[in-house]
Amino acid sequence: MYLEVSYIGSACGKNRYEPTSKTILLLLARHSPELIKHLLFQYGIIVESDDDKVYDTELKNIYSVFKKNIKDVSTAENVKDEIIKKLKSENKEMTDEDISVANNFLESSIKKDCGNNNESSVIQSKMYTKGNNFMHRKNPWDQLPHWELRGFHDASHGDTVIEIKTRMKRINVRKNEYDLYQLFGYLLVMDKTKGKIVQKFQDEIFDSDTENSEEFGIIDISLDKWATKFNKFKQELYSFFETVDAICNDINYNIHDYMVNFKNVVNRSNDFPIAKIYNGVPRNVNNNYEKLIKTLF
Prior knowledge:
It is built from ten helices and twelve strands. By secondary structure, it is α/β, with parallel strands linked by helices.
């Protein structure tokens, strides 16, 4: 069993945008895919569809023309509107639901690609050493030999691990605990002691080595302040793995409570259904659940 470093904030309950129950279900899907697939259908979270007309391929083809040039967050909404307009002009029969699915895909994709594109510019501007070239893997605890952390780091500067975050709004330039936990994850799997979270909004890069109201500065887990937080992080992550193990040990008995919890999360987000299945093939997949659906189909 494995957990991606990028999911650590969710696993430890630090990311309000990614509930812990969602990450637990992804891991349960890896453990018992047929059971989870059956229950997703049973709870109406995914549904069968007899409509073979979807716009996934056309949408992705149109978007591919734009994706490498998305760097300015202020133009993101205009890019999305332009793509939707083009898609609708070529497919007059599109329903409101089809347009909603397309909007969901674009919002998620534009945010992700804006981050990826700006990451490269930050690395070049600050002369960091580019990462993402090696999958780091580590089992942090002898007591849990079947668990592994995995992840690609963004960059490094000497012995300092760099995690780059693109902010879509100026107000979002801030110290997020889930970002800190993700960086802690990279320090853990890479056996490093120093890291820094670098933020970018439009043309401004926030990379202070000293902590301030918006930045953590250099995070050094060999110092008492950060060592205390790092040890707390490790305890919370260990507890998360124990929780998942407890469910897996008697999954048929334990799973329904988590399915109800997950359904409530999906319902609050107005994400029903997260995918439609046509002849065994996922269509109209909600981007927020793409990894879960790819795990099952």
